[in-house]
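Re: the request from the purification team.
They wanted to know what the chain is likely to look like in 3D before they choose a buffer screen. I agreed to run a prediction and write the result into the notebook, where they can find it.
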Amino acid sequence: MSENNFQNILPKMPELRVSKNGYEIRTEILRQAQDLVGQEFSYKWQGWEVSQEKDKDGKLVTKVGMPEFPGVDKVLETAEKMYSFVNQATTKK
């Protein structure tokens, strides 16, 4: 009997799926939110702008449009949005 046929005869082991607890889920969502916010800042940083123009007196004015670095509040706000999405009941069909 070939090895391939032998594998078809043996019973397959049941798949073991370990559910994550609430702390693990929130930690994972927080990590994803941090990555998302950091990536968004990175994209904005790459495209920040410097412009120069003269004011009404003829003086040269330099404006720097740098993005603000996202703090903990922005990460938590994003994580809360993601977590509320995960907790929504799937009633749409």
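For the purification team: Strands lie at 49-54, 60-65.
Please add any questions underneath this entry.
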